[in-house]
Design goal:
By secondary structure, the chain is mainly alpha-helical. Helix content is about 65%, strand content about 10%. The chain has a two-stranded parallel sheet with strand order 1-2. Helix 1 (about 10-40) runs antiparallel to helix 2 (about 45-70). The longest helix has 30 residues, at about 10-40. It is elongated and about 55 Å long.
Length: about 80
């Protein structure tokens, strides 16, 4: 059974905005960095490529984490929080 994550409406929107940014902007920037690093040749000794792949893994992990938070969210109204 999934854990419920109680959050306010504004917290939900903040997480959704962050997720949207990671998917639309950061993911695309990382893909561009990987393509640039690939153009430099031998990937086995390419530090830029390795760093871009690590950034990609971190970003995808954060995307998955935020998607899970939103999927299991129980949203309460901001005005209900004291």
């Amino acid at each position: 059974m999934a854990t419920e994550n109680v959050m306010t409406e504004s917290e939900y929107r903040r997480i959704q905005d962050n997720l949207d940014d990671l998917i639309a902007n950061k993911r695309q920037a990382i893909i561009a960095a990987i393509e640039e690093a690939r153009s430099h040749g031998d990937l086995s000794e390419n530090a830029e490529y390795e760093e871009a792949r690590k950034d990609q893994a971190k970003n995808e992990s954060e995307i998955s984490r935020l998607q899970y938070l939103l999927k299991t969210a129980v949203v309460i109204r901001d005005e209900d929080v004291k």
